[in-house]
């Protein structure tokens, strides 16, 4: 029998350390267990040992059936992504699948936890599949701009049909074991102990005389037509905005109607093309950037941290309420403190309505909602903070008010426990000096809505201790948020780039002749979910004005600097909450409608400054806003506010809506080429003035013919050298 693999001599076990895969025989069952923590990635070692185990089972006269199972809580989360950037060594996953399908005895996959990507593709090649009731199965490769390349687009349509397969691959969202059973993806759903259930399942197959059942021998039950394709793409239009990978997926799934050998060749070519695409390179950059953002200079990677069971939050407004829900969702007890009983009552109503909405949408059960609501209590007594493991201040963005609250917290909370401020722009160092223990003070900048937002910006004051930062990183992990550590300066990373770069330039374009709707539409076409003026109206124009009031007490900015937004605040045009802002809104509606009054105000403010307005095309709007964002990002890096360019990318893709498939502003700059970026900034400097001077770091990278990515790699290498 040709298995496409070299079969070693028969041995009773695969036992050479480390035991990423083990093999044993239980009666007629050849049991192969994958044990490669934490997620059973199918790296070269695992593939080698799987090949050895399959060969042993093949050579054993006792084995009538083979069972592949996990030694941990996850069947397999798929391939080792680091291998994608180098030539794959044999045996490939495709060779293993071919060997499985050609086995002389049935092969069963017993799926626990997650079977994702290559993990599911491995299971698809098995002859039978059993899943635990808690298992989730999916092909999420599209989230990395990749087309499944190990038979996923060919075997899945043969098992469940082309349209359901296209839906699974395009959505990238794992399905439950019950859904997998209903679709025909798995044969049985097991309750209780999966190993026992799987062995019994195998023994029954042997008694029934069941034969191998290669998926490759099946025919796809249907073929894709344009109406099917349109329906699937329409259902995921928002997530796929400006994306291209879905078109490659469609071409691959269509090939499932070909003979298997031809279809698998088509898939391989398409998958290879997707791996080299700018979209995939950008998405994989962000994937690794998010996983590296918690590695912070001066903070041990495995630092100890205190247990966090009880949390105190001061301020029952929008942010405090959201933060309370975030901790309750993570299973922690929360005391929400405010000196205003009305605010506490309003917060309680928001919490109940938010969870009720989650129940209505099927996201959580009533029982889960009740448990989370019960974890949150309210109080007007600040002294109850003393029992908390950490305390978070979430009052209004006012330096004096926050100092008073932090000082009070410092007096009642034991000195070894973390005190965090939820400021979005104010100096953490100055706030820390309001306490007797500034080493335990730092910023935890949550984003709205705090319970659902992905990013947590951790702001390190000049005196914040490494232990304090380590605790904050633990908080982020506890809340399942992506942490980025920032230095202490106005606006930190995200808001500094937004206020001094992106939003500043968007308003400048309005003064020069663009309309709010043109600027928003151009940037939404670029890939942002919402344009800057719509974002301002949604959050409230007064929010930015209050931030700038605090800024002007310590720093200055040359005119014009948000003169329009601040004037709208003076006029009571705060955005959606007042029905008027950059746009007007009908009663109870959220549609942003053009407002002639705003057009006239823009013209007046421009005239007062001697600005002659003229038409501006969309290309210039996008270029200026993105270049301004990149340039201020480079300043943030050279000032040490952000440690890595990849951290800037994480902040902007996770917290500010920069299109993820473009990799973040600094990665996008590398895509454009630093020389091109520098030349275009100088172009606008000649045309528009000194604001457009290229950042020093951009000029340095241009001289060195380098990039932000190379800059990151050089810094990482320097850190790794002893004594540096």
Q: What does this protein structure show overall?
A:
With 724 residues, the protein is α/β, with parallel strands linked by helices. It has 3 domains: 21-275, 2-enoyl-CoA Hydratase, Chain A, domain 1 (Alpha-Beta Complex); 310-486, NAD(P)-binding Rossmann-like Domain (Rossmann fold, 3-Layer(aba) Sandwich), CATH 3.40.50.720; 494-717, N-(1-d-carboxylethyl)-l-norvaline Dehydrogenase, domain 2, CATH 1.10.1040. The protein has 29 helices and 17 strands. The N and C termini lie far apart (58 Å). Mean pLDDT is 93; it is low at 1-16.
- Strand-pairing-aware structural class: alpha/beta
Strand order of the largest sheet: 12-11-10-13-14-15-16-17
The CATH class label of the largest domain is Alpha Beta
Percentage of residues assigned to helices: 40-55%
CATH-defined superfamily of the largest domain: 2-enoyl-CoA Hydratase, Chain A, domain 1
CATH topology name of the largest domain, in short, is 2-enoyl-CoA Hydratase, Chain A, domain 1
- Strand tally, please? 17
Mean pLDDT: 93
Number of domains: 3
How large a portion of the residues is in β-strands, by DSSP E? 5-15%
Largest sheet: 8 strands, mixed
**How many distinct helices?**
29
